[in-house]
Amino acid sequence: MKGYIIHDLAEPDDAPSDDLPPRGWGMVLVSPPFERNYKEWVKRSDAKKMVMDCPGESDVKAMCVWMRRHQPVREQAEYWKVVKGQMDEVGPIPRYIFDERKYDNWVQRCHKTVDEATSSVILQCIGLGRGGSWDLMKVLYWLARVVRVRGKAGGSEFFSNLPVSAHLGNKTLFKSANLMQQVDFNFLISGLTDYLISENFGRCTVFAFLNGSFVSAIERRLRELRPSPQLQSHRCALAVYSRERSTRHHVLPPLEHFSERIDVDHWVLYVTEVENFPLVDGFFFVKTKPMTLVGLRMATAGEHHTTASTVRQFTEYLAAYFNGWEESSRPLSWEMIYVQHADSTPMNDWQRCDVVSSDNVSDDEKQKIAAFWNEKVRQYQVSISSREVPRRV
């Protein structure tokens, strides 16, 4: 053997020459999972297919250290900060994160892919969370990365398509939530649930509440947080009405793009596109007497206290979104569920509603809101890992 050729097929609809490899040479063909790129060559060459992960963060950091090894430590740190920011945006793809010009072009193309996606294009994202060639899902070329998965049989392996980065993943999920049919979006979430949990995927993790397996795992682990152990315990509505759950979602746009109030619908998962939405990441209503609002908050820290002005801001959003909110909210029962990854510091104590200085809420109203929170809001905490939710590929 004279040596090996490494042939990189970076683009879709690319293919190696029929003359490769020359006699006496071996060849490694590197390609995204576009089968038509390599299917004939693999057959002709009797090649073995292997799955290779993208480099991890520690791998990329080591590359940065090596490339800037002759520079001062401060400059090395600044270079890593730039590369890390670009990796957070487009994923750990060396050909783009180490070249500023290529990065600029690529990140624009990725965002344009999501921004201009039609219903038929975004439907290709149904392959996220599952294996499968990209031949019929070309949109994954800009939005996905391949992750190697070991099979149960000895030595077997396959790959799963996951969002290339949390940033693009969030954007893709919200676009899918707006454009996909409900059954298709639920199918997408069923494949991505363990990823949303394991990666601490921020507010998009609330979409996991559309997955029955996830909700079942949550119900069994709910733990009530009480301001005083003397107070009577209270079962969470999610556990009491375990046979019912959210199977539909509704994405609430920013108020500047919202024209007409909607009616409150029970067991609909409401998620908002508003950045830094106050108090919750999502919520739903349960048909009880009185009606129950269940707020969902993804939490990583061991405490997640709020303020009276934050609660007030949340209720102002609800009044702007829903018909007759002032009337229907009077007898409303409130519950908060804090969902944490199993590796996070567990939240063990009651989460306070503090009274702090605020220009938009009077002192009297702040005291009333804090009293309502402390007396009427039920709180629950649950820690969960992806291992506790059945994985579908």
UniProtKB/TrEMBL annotation:
A Pfam family cross-referenced in the UniProt record is RHSP
Q: What domain of life is recorded for the organism?
A: Eukaryota
Q: Where is the Retrotransposon hot spot protein,C-terminal domain?
A: 1-225
- PANTHER family associated with the record: HOT SPOT (RHS) PROTEIN, PUTATIVE-RELATED (PTHR33129:SF3), PROTEIN KINASE DOMAIN-CONTAINING PROTEIN-RELATED (PTHR33129)
Protein name, as recorded? Putative retrotransposon hot spot (RHS) protein
Q: Could you tell me which species this protein originates from? A: Trypanosoma cruzi
